[in-house]
Amino acid sequence: MKRRIRMGMVGGGPGAFIGGVHRMAARLDNKIELVCGAFSSNAEKSKLMSDELFLDPDRVYGSYWEMFSAEARLPVGERMDFVSIVTPNFAHFEVAKAALEHGFHVVCDKPMTMTVAEAKVLAALVDKTKLEFCLTHNYTGYPMVKQAKEMIAAGKLGAIRKVVSEYPQGWLATSLESQKQVWRTDPAKSGISCCIGDIGTHAENIAEYVTGLKIAELCADLTSFVPGRTLDDDGNILVRFDNGARGVIYASQVSVGEENALNIRVYGDKGGLEWSQQEPNTLIVKWNDRPSEIYRTGWAGNGENAGRNTRTPAGHPEGFIEAFANLYSNFADVVAARLDNVDPAKIRRDFPGVHDGVRGVAFIQNVVDSSDAHGWVKFTL
Amino acid sequence: MKRRIRMGMVGGGPGAFIGGVHRMAARLDNKIELVCGAFSSNAEKSKLMSDELFLDPDRVYGSYWEMFSAEARLPVGERMDFVSIVTPNFAHFEVAKAALEHGFHVVCDKPMTMTVAEAKVLAALVDKTKLEFCLTHNYTGYPMVKQAKEMIAAGKLGAIRKVVSEYPQGWLATSLESQKQVWRTDPAKSGISCCIGDIGTHAENIAEYVTGLKIAELCADLTSFVPGRTLDDDGNILVRFDNGARGVIYASQVSVGEENALNIRVYGDKGGLEWSQQEPNTLIVKWNDRPSEIYRTGWAGNGENAGRNTRTPAGHPEGFIEAFANLYSNFADVVAARLDNVDPAKIRRDFPGVHDGVRGVAFIQNVVDSSDAHGWVKFTL
Amino acid sequence: MKRRIRMGMVGGGPGAFIGGVHRMAARLDNKIELVCGAFSSNAEKSKLMSDELFLDPDRVYGSYWEMFSAEARLPVGERMDFVSIVTPNFAHFEVAKAALEHGFHVVCDKPMTMTVAEAKVLAALVDKTKLEFCLTHNYTGYPMVKQAKEMIAAGKLGAIRKVVSEYPQGWLATSLESQKQVWRTDPAKSGISCCIGDIGTHAENIAEYVTGLKIAELCADLTSFVPGRTLDDDGNILVRFDNGARGVIYASQVSVGEENALNIRVYGDKGGLEWSQQEPNTLIVKWNDRPSEIYRTGWAGNGENAGRNTRTPAGHPEGFIEAFANLYSNFADVVAARLDNVDPAKIRRDFPGVHDGVRGVAFIQNVVDSSDAHGWVKFTL
Amino acid sequence: MKRRIRMGMVGGGPGAFIGGVHRMAARLDNKIELVCGAFSSNAEKSKLMSDELFLDPDRVYGSYWEMFSAEARLPVGERMDFVSIVTPNFAHFEVAKAALEHGFHVVCDKPMTMTVAEAKVLAALVDKTKLEFCLTHNYTGYPMVKQAKEMIAAGKLGAIRKVVSEYPQGWLATSLESQKQVWRTDPAKSGISCCIGDIGTHAENIAEYVTGLKIAELCADLTSFVPGRTLDDDGNILVRFDNGARGVIYASQVSVGEENALNIRVYGDKGGLEWSQQEPNTLIVKWNDRPSEIYRTGWAGNGENAGRNTRTPAGHPEGFIEAFANLYSNFADVVAARLDNVDPAKIRRDFPGVHDGVRGVAFIQNVVDSSDAHGWVKFTL
After folding, report:
1. In this predicted complex, what is the ipTM?
2. Strand D246-252 and strand D234-241: pairing?
3. pLDDT given for residue D182 in this prediction
4. Which end of chain D is more exposed for a tag (fewer CB within 10 A), N or C?
5. Cβ–Cβ contacts within 10 Å for residue C341, how many?
6. Chain B residues with CB inside 8 Å of D294's CB?
7. B272 touches C: beta carbon within 8 Å
């Protein structure tokens, strides 16, 4: 019998953008039901969401701690199966840690924690409890990103030599510090980096995800262009991968006119490829000895995992929410498998996990260290 | 207090593509709850969907007639508020007619009916009952299509002179008649046209929607290229609009390599514009005296309706399902307003209606007539 | 020993755009030397070009008649080998006829003549004299257009079913009749059509060139949108080809914001292709069963004729002038072969000829006839 | 009276690609006449070019030294006015130096010399002799590159913060060392760098040309990926400019499937822009508060210099050869002005000069130094 997984949410109260995205993503495939939440550190605001989301008011809690305690007392089959954490960065660690300690599976927004030490604590806890943990590096959910990964893993491009991963945005080109997004540029809430923490980690994650390589050394140049801003709003990084491949990763929030222009190019000794988030259903695969090819979401010849993460035939554009939903869908399948005592390995669902989170937080730390030292650093976890 | 609208579904049983799309679209914004269905003309198959969709088995019915009767007996607030009709074309009329007669609002897939006479019956019934009727010309749900419409309505492009609307696909380039899609090429189920009925009506609808013009005269050339096929798989049409504008509409299912390449170009005496469904978040607006402009979904300066039909900031691609969901969302808002005794006109939601459906069916009839006569025909309803 | 061919020019005096383009095209490959000209019907203006073009003043003539007479008296090896005719349309016929009668090979701008009768006279004269005649349908000079032709001729796309050829411009969207381009909209100088005569014939020619098919029947709808204009500035045409293929050809000079957006799409029962003049070095080839392919000018695997008409390796964009120069280069090679008593067939150079010109003028006539009759016409020469 | 400038050429013998490009570029606008050459270090091969190029055999010389001596003895008005140097890199210095010492203006291919010391010698000689010197950084000849420069110089983008300049190619992804291009990967002929010397300098030059900024500091990572190759075939570079702007420059010859994909993005505090060499007639200009704009070659509203370097109206693509020809055309205008005793400053023609050449060679040296040191270096001349 099919089952729907029960979700609780921490964060995502009135006006929060990313909370709504998570809820749409969780809802899309009808595999997940939102059953409870602690939507705001302000209990009044949290309660407002009961009407908004058609939730039982008794299950809209004033704090995540209260929620975990109360839900843990409910019987399996009624209580939430996992929690989705969509708070600002600084709260991820304590909420995720508490959730794991209460025995709940976790979906957590990125970057996972404020420090590498915290990240390692979570990783150790996940390894110990064997609970499922999904970090929402949502861009890896796009079918064509999975197609790229599958082609590289199958050796189609040969040995990888060069990786270029970019994430330019323009929205912080002028001072928005007096406005609502302030938390991203506030070290107390965002951590040691704004630009690299918020979007540079996506560029790093997609590079490692698609290639299967790990960054081994890097040299970063962070800048804070907008007067009065303390954290970086732009960063350029040379990288070397563990197999000897070289590359460039950059992220920017002051690239005026850019929206969310994450893109990646990978070159091996046989072929190359190129993908852009803003036109996500196209993957250009490049060769020296024959014409470049245009792979498209929904094509029957795509790889198994690309195909599994596609909802419609080719030509029906799948977007940001669908990619995000793929993480939730895959996570739900794995949690359902465990509830049904099926080995999750058998169903081959993939989503970013806690160890990707450790690498992401370490990437931020290494980038800041390199930029401060004005030179190359070995990538350390 | 917020409310969720209750949906029943007719059609969309095991394996049906479009039924699943409708359900995802209805689900995305959490404004609609699926409460019942008659998913197949085969009662056994219909019942299978109860588990699939986590529905009360008592509300999964063996026939639409049974569903309408049973639901009509339930109290408001429990019974379905509207029905979504996702059957093959031939059944739309009888189901929609019965739904309206039972007092239910209707969402219906296109083309609305098999004949113009049937279409007029439905229109008269809607006009008489004042029930809400949404025809799922889903491509009008894209934010950039609404932006195009708003700019033209505001006179930004001047008087419209030329419209080109194309919908090429390639999937019927070879004979699939022995396969499951057979109903589309079967006159008994699909009607007097395959290509124009299935996708040509979308091209017609988007042209009239975006420009606000009506086709007044047309000259069509339909072809059935694949041996053994009785209905058209390609059609080219010259059109004249009621304001004197001229244009071309074409649809094809034998354009090898094309996926779902609906696109429209409109030129007025001041400006032009271009939109393509496969990259739906970009609208190119063209001028003779200054550079072309790239309008993008999510830009803060977009029109009110474009903005209302957008979920995420610029750079987060919204796709086919989101556009489809916009129809359901707008329809749900209108039905909710009526349940709350609010005048729907006040909330300015738009979706294609029963009179668009009459025009669509008449378009198919006029096109077939013109092609048969090998000459121009005045557009008659 | 290599030789340069000697060119005379009729038209292209001070301020004429297309004359300068012809001269750059003739000059680019160093196969042709401009030796004389009658650049204007105004002898004074013609003489001004002697200094401009570094020509012997004695060979800048006051009229084409004077030029042909004088040059014909010079010995071969000194006199011009061919004449390039770049006058407004109305003068093409008399100049070309005189040139042929004086024994000169001809390069002539399009449309070839004002009437089909004139066109046939020229064709008969060319057939009789066996002189070389090149009509500058310059867009067929692009390497990727030749690649498209070669792939279709080799059967790569299968039997051709559908052809869409468009040529939208916007420059005549407002009245320019008081300005210098007036001759194009003046029936006395331009003929029975403005838009179809000027650019529609390019769309027709490229469709027939690329596919190898001939238009057999058509239905046209011409409009003159700008008040006070007597000739068409927009035309939409349904076409049927001699093999049963169907298609659409349209041209427009009132498509605001369009520059010179000639493009063609062709679909056979195996594959499709798409080419756009404004990005001329890319040819998209489309398949149902594998990814679309991006063919590019300069790729080593292109066809023989595409390769021969390319000057630089892939990635060095070749443009409008290079395509135009390909016509001159191929024509020069053929004239040189004849001067060297080599059979031109052996060197396999291609350029549009006098019979393409007859078809082009007949196309204009058939389109005007069809539009006037408001119905289909069989294509008659 | 108009005049044509007389050109001699050194290098560009049988089979040389770039020599032919220079000759087409010099020929296109009819401002330059090739009158003599020393086309090969092999006198026999050089002589073969007399027939090929329709040159007086007496002026096809066995060596550049012989040419400079002989031509210097001819009267002005007959002798060559300037020399175009298109030899492999290692010979640029000695030929250019000799030309300047003989009083000839110079057009020289890039990189200018093998060492910074040599570059400075040439610069000093140019400064002393006041002869004209054009270094063929041909990509700066594109109209849209000039448009970008003009918009930035006019402050349209505000203070520049970020520059990304890339030049990926794929042709050296496998070993071609046994083939004809061997000289590029041979340190004796190419200098201390292959990839950065050949194409990285273009990326550096266009970045400095478009922005008007100078690189002040850099950190480079060069790699030689192909086994057996001694010079770099890939390089990634972080840069800091003299105004505090940051950026990335990279070049690659192992990016499989890339042709000649030079591109640049620049972001100021008001706007951004993007240009790609392979589609050179489009410049995207980006804003945060209004739609991005598509500037196009040939638009009447382009800047003065962009307009001057354009031959045809918008929509007639201008390509690589036209851009290259713009350097020759501007250079010829300046030389002609000097022959006419007109101050070249008055005619405002621009082309890259000897000091750009010094910076280019210094860039190569700084990049190699930084890569060797595995860290940042201050940019030193």
Report:
1. 0.96
2. antiparallel
3. 63
4. N
5. 6
6. 284, 291-294
7. yes
The two structure tokens encoding residue C187: 């029936």
Q: Would you call B314 and A24 a contact, using CB atoms and an 8 Å cutoff?
A: no
| E strand or H helix that includes residue B337 | helix B320-339
Partner D contacted by C25 (CB < 8 A)? no
Closest CA to B126 of B363, B352, B380, B379: B352
- Closest chain A CA to residue D286: A257
Cβ contact B270:B258 at 8 Å: no
Q: What is the pLDDT of residues A26-69, one digit of tens each?
A: 999 999 999 999 999 888 888 889 999 999 999 999 999 999 99
E strand map for chain D: 5-10, 32-38, 82-85, 105-108, 133-135, 160-168, 215-223, 234-241, 246-252, 263-268, 271-276, 282-287, 292-296, 376-378
Query: How many other CB atoms are found less than 10 A from the CB of residue B9?
Result: 29
Angstrom distances, CA of residue D310 to CA of C321, D147, D335: 12, 11, 20
Helix (H, G, I), strand (E, B) or coil at B234: strand
3-state per-residue secondary structure call for C56-110? CHHHECCCHHHHHHHHHHCCCCCCCCEEEECCCHHHHHHHHHHHHHCCCEEEECC
Report whether pLDDT(D216) > 80: yes
Q: Is B269 on the interface with C (CB under 8 A)?
A: yes
Cα–Cα distance for residue pair D202/D137, rounded to 1 Å: 6
Using the Cβ of B337 and the Cβ atoms of chain A, whether some distance falls under 8 Å is answered with no
Q: Give the gap in angstroms from C-alpha A118 to the nearest C-alpha of chain B.
A: 30
The minimal CB distance from D293 to the residues B293, B299, B301 is found for B293
Q: Which amino acid is at D380?
A: T
Across the interface, do B257 and C287 touch by the CB < 8 Å criterion?
yes
pLDDT band at B342 (very low <50, low <70, confident <90, very high): very high
CB D246 within 8 A of CB A236: yes
Task: Specify whether the CB–CB gap between B6 and B30 falls below 8 A.
Answer: no
Q: Are strands D160-168 and D246-252 parallel, antiparallel or unpaired?
A: parallel
For chain A, say whether D216 makes contact (Cβ under 8 Å): no
Per-residue buried b or exposed e for B301-319, using 16+ beta carbons within 10 Å of the residue's own CB: ebbebbbbbbbbbbbbbbb
The DSSP 8-state label assigned to residue B142 in this structure reads S
Q: Do A267 and D248 touch (CB under 8 A)?
A: no
CA dist A66 and A41 (Å) reads 12
- Strand-pair partners of D5: D32
- Which of B4, B278, B316 is facing A54, going by the closest CB pair? B4
Instruction: Give me the residue from B162, B170, B376 closest to C288, CB to CB.
Output: B170
Grade residue C294 by pLDDT with cuts at 50, 70 and 90.
very high
Cβ <8 Å between D236 and A248: yes
How far is residue C208's CA from residue C19's CA, in Å, rounded to a whole number? 26
Is C246 near chain D, with CB under 8 Å? no
The C-alpha of D82 sits at a distance from chain B's nearest C-alpha, in angstroms, of 40
Torsion of CA D247, D253, D255, D256, to 10 degrees: 160
The position carrying tokens 């498509």 is C255
Tokens of D71: 């031509």
Dihedral sign (CA B63, B69, B73, B76): positive
Q: Which two tokens stand for residue A77?
A: 């089959």
**B232-273: per-residue pLDDT in tens?**
999 999 999 999 999 999 999 999 999 999 999 999 999 999
- Name which of C280, C313, C314 is nearest D317 (Cβ-Cβ): C280
Query: Within an 8 Å CB–CB cutoff, is residue B267 touching chain C?
Result: yes
Query: How far apart, in whole angstroms, are the C-alpha atoms of residue C107 and residue C130?
Result: 14
Domains of chain D: 5-139+326-353 (3.40.50.720), 142-315+359-378 (3.30.360.10)
Over residues D221-249, the pLDDT tens digits come to: 999 999 989 999 999 999 999 999 999 99
